[in-house]
Amino acid sequence: MTEIVRSITPKDAWQLLEDNPKAILIDVRSEMEYLWIGHPKGAIHIPWIDEPDWIVNPHFAAEVRKLLLGGIITDHEDSAHPIDSVPLLLICRSGNRSLEAGKELVKHGFTNVYNVVEGFEGALDHEHHRGTLGGWRFHGLPWEQT
């Protein structure tokens, strides 16, 4: 069976994080977005695409695996490290970049990957503003700015 990236709402993502201490929320936005716009409390920052070149991070899956192993990278097929089934929740601005990042993790053997569908800020409204139709902040979930 082919693994897929599962969709999850911001509220359900928060509940999963509360219920499962092994679950990890990864913010895949750029460093500037993470720092200046804010991020969910407890989120780990691993950019999928970042400035200055705005290209896909070729080490994204390896950085996630390194995070899960506490800094030790091993082959994902190593049965001594069942890290590939840890719930990974990915969030970006509106759910698009995090979906692409999730697909990359699935390609690298991760089997429990979620995309927070509304993202941190949600979709644009009819006046081209974010944060009025959905997203982590819209739902009043814990977040912070650094």
Automatic annotation (TrEMBL):
Instruction: Give UniProt keywords alphabetically.
Output: Transferase
Tagged with keyword Lipid metabolism: no
**What Pfam families does UniProt report for this protein, alphabetically?**
Rhodanese
- SUPFAM superfamilies the UniProt entry points to: Rhodanese/Cell cycle control phosphatase
Q: Which domain of life is it from?
A: Bacteria
Question: Could you identify this protein by its name?
Answer: Rhodanese-related sulfurtransferase
Q: Which residues form a coiled coil?
A: none
Q: Which InterPro entries does this one have?
A: Rhodanese-like_dom, Rhodanese-like_dom_sf, Thiosulfate_ST/Rhodanese-like
CDD domains tied to this protein: RHOD_1 (cd01522)
Q: Which GO terms describe its molecular function?
A: transferase activity
Species: Beggiatoa alba B18LD
Q: Where is the Rhodanese domain?
A: 19-132
